[in-house]
């Protein structure tokens, strides 16, 4: 397998681009070719041809493929971590952890496939002598949607990029995948794509089961979204990017689902009892969560809401002190750094918003300096822009005069990925309505934690109402993400031998099924 | 409860409309007022206020409400059937059956709620001593989307209208509902709405849990889709109508899901062995399915494909004979009758399409005369319009020269609700690829049946890829329809007392849950 297999070849390479080392502030030397419309089309066509074969592979076969991808990623060794560090500025330990998470995700989906019950097999057996009409035999299960397009994210160059969560869930569902690599880490993308292709070859998967296209311009992504053979899109990134893809997909002659995770400001409500009990600890915890990964997480807490009180002022003083001592970190790209600086500038120029603390800045090309800002509830409620995500290590503290204003803030929120309550048991009784309000606003509600750190497990919801995502009915993290790439099909009066194994009488895969209303592993 | 509670009142009733008796060809006398934009907004606002209360009702309470709706529908007695007959032209027996189905659907969702496991409760318990990071307690379940808009269908004035499947599934999920009644049966809609409201009152449901708006113009529906408090749309009807709603919903500042079931032509493939074995019976079965309900079913088989052979000609002769003897039936509305006649005219004027048989027509205002048309595969493949739905009692027989052409037809299909194979066991072996092709095209695949007659059960999929629906990931018939109106929420580190009952340690509802990867009813 040579490198030329990774990228569908282009006839006339017209445009090239390079990675950037944000730590050194230097362009890297390797040139990458932007994929032409023909190259994108060729990848989609190969994905369609491969889909005919891949979708009929057993769950165990797909599981082998996913696990093998993980092995091939490990086989990339230190070269992957080194190159990814160069391209992303992320520290070695973080990238090692992220590699572990990436492989963990692949293995988690492999386990899901081996267990097999995810297809939601549901059987209603025939009643030939039912009056007035006989009842047919009906059996339903989930099948794969088709070839899908996955966009790599800048902030998780391993775990939400080429072989990341979206790719893993789509491949698990039985979809073939065309990845649009993120231009911020083209070399990393190329290495990861090579690993996926080696795994595909080793596990006898069809040519085209996975391919990658490259590009800096939005045209490459649009070509992918608009290709008629592509049946769904997975994306993690900005609101602007995600919404543009969503709109393009809705405009297609055949509209397709777009799962765009577009981030949010993840409000944290610090209730009076919690402030009293552990205000100082919360200051430290908040600062850690806001600046983790230089604030470049979708679940970064960008809004903190509390009611005026002596304890609130103490908490704020402590938080100010902590923020003042924090150092700037290296952000992923110059564009992200510029957007962060611009966002902070816009906030600080907003009437009624003040800067409480600025961390220790540095002169590097991509330095992101921690910021703690403050406003009051009246200003916030009158100026919705304050609630817009500023991607980076900053947060806005909103002071409410009392419970009423705090509840008004909660009620006025649009969709977010998460919301957090810092609360004592007494707070939770007094603010029970707050939980009910926030349930409608987010995909994940936390009590006494911080929203960064998204556990990869069956019960995770990394999603939420618009504009956090374009599809609140799903999650992009955890095993439930597989449902984004599947749909139900019902088989009526099929002879047993023609049914998929999941629906055959003998239950050869020994999966959980709903048979005539009863959940069971029994045969029929 | 008086009639004025049924329709949100309008300040300046500007436009009225009346029902039409398609059998007699006469306008009915009762005048109905078209809902103003203010009336639609008021209904949405009431639905939002009610949602805050309704979504916290227990499953058992919602089940009581749904069952009570069924009882109140029965309490409408013969008056409902009589009025519905007048407005729809459908026969008494059919409407009695449809009433039974409507109540059956409500009871089915009530049973689903009482059982309770539909919320897909998934729990991953904490691992405080996990290295390098402790694991939080995470618990996920489905909650209701919010107030939703449901559009009544013309062809199921009871089972897919005011208190029909979409309303039942939305109310079951915990959504409040604003129905846009279909203008073809305004009186029936009004009676049914009154029944729902009586049930709401009897079971102590909040004011606004259900309301209805009326109108002939598309503006009323658009007002509903565009209202910011409405969070999803259910629709059954034409491609034009459904696609317009889908587009409007995607254009909203906050896009929302639209579940539009837009019908299809439901291809039937009659394979050589089946033709040989039972060609004559198939002729009778096909004619019955095509003309059932005067062909006014979304699953009406509008395309029949077979390969040239002596047996095929015999089958066709027999089908021609049967169709020639069929009588015209009364279609639902003059508009539907005109669209049917126009569709037939367009088909007969298409080069390469011929009329094999015309049933016995009548002179009534809404008479729909059965038509059997014929074309060949070459013409069909070159003229995709032949495959467009003609809503009514007609079907197009497509003669293929051999297996290759038959497979080309299958490959070229867009999305349909159903596809059917008439096949012997030997056919199924020889045409195994055909099943694989059709799986990608439809929501339901049948062997040796006919697609009309949609069983209401857990395993049903009444849906399919675009343009059959705007969301292939769902079904509008059967218990799985509840998932259209819900989304997952994850609770992290919640004290047991603050969790919804479904997720509490003791499993007080005794539902099936996935706990740390194991499906169980055990407590935690």
From TrEMBL, chains A, B:
Gene3D superfamilies per UniProt: Aldehyde Dehydrogenase, Chain A, domain 1, Aldehyde Dehydrogenase, Chain A, domain 2
Keywords: Oxidoreductase
GO function term, MF aspect, one: oxidoreductase activity, acting on the aldehyde or oxo group of donors, NAD or NADP as acceptor
SUPFAM superfamilies named among the record's database cross-references: ALDH-like
Oxidoreductase among keywords: yes
Domain Aldehyde dehydrogenase: 14-455
InterPro entries, sorted: Ald_DH/histidinol_DH (IPR016161), Ald_DH_C (IPR016163), Ald_DH_N (IPR016162), Aldehyde_DH_dom (IPR015590), Aldehyde_DH_Superfamily (IPR050740), ALDH_KGSADH (IPR044151)
Coiled-coil regions listed in the entry: none
Superkingdom, natural source: Bacteria
UniProt xrefs under PANTHER family: ALDEHYDE DEHYDROGENASE-RELATED, SUCCINATE-SEMIALDEHYDE DEHYDROGENASE, MITOCHONDRIAL
Protein name: Aldehyde dehydrogenase (NADP(+))
Organism: Adhaeribacter arboris
